NAD(P)-dependent dehydrogenase (Short-subunit alcohol dehydrogenase family)
Amino acid sequence: MTLAGKVAVVTGATRGCGRGIAVELGALGATVYVTGRTTREQRSPMNRPETIEETAELVDAVGGKGIPVRCDFTKVSDVDALVDRIDSGVDILVDDVWGGDPFHVFGVPYWEQDLDAVLSLVRNGVETHLIALHRLMPLVVRNKGMVVEITDGDDETYHGAGLAYYLVKSSMRALGRALAGELEGTDCTALTVTPGFLRSEFMLDHFGVTEATWRDGVAKEPHFVMSETPRYIGRGIAALADDPEKARFNGKVMASWTLMREYGFTDLDGTRPDWGRWYDEVVATGKEPDTVDAAAYR
């Protein structure tokens, strides 16, 4: 329980990476403010069943303290109300707001997409982070804490996911670099972290599988064999939070797999999926995944 007494705020903690990160911080004893828009009484426009209360209960179950707070990060008043709930500084801020799925379109040129949808995606994916940082960073600076921006991808290569999506995710990497610069001299740490092929609740539903049967999804997407649970990136960020020398990563973009190589943690099934190595050696080279020994990459 090495994070006992530490206070964390995880934005977008209803599901996916945010939930996995909140739970793993709780597993080390942290008090975690679990923030998001979906509660048991009200769903967000994402229209998913997962709730912030469920995430908070998972935090409690592993030994932490989960505090669910409904917060729409497009609304400054909501974030101000969250800040008012926190009667201390913040040791760990994980900025994982997304909410762009209803507006994201694959395979359609940007100029043929609906402009209102594109702007909504950018607002949900970028402006929310700026609002969260503006209001919450004073609490992080007070405690000489750590702030982590969550992105998709560890470099600036464009992989065809769409102009607006790329803009949002590259903005998170830029925020991590800029925050490290602005925090110089404060004893705070700022960086950006990406998952690999995330086996989120949404992706499990997309492939028609459950966490228990996830390997059946490989028939639809062969590279799914290298997927990881949201708890994997959570363990990486928990290890970062527990590292007294974490400032060496200031301004960098880390990944679940690079954190795994650094700290040696495993996913829930005891394996160590290395999406970075898989991408370089299998995806980028055009190898057929079923001709590769996937176990060697896990």
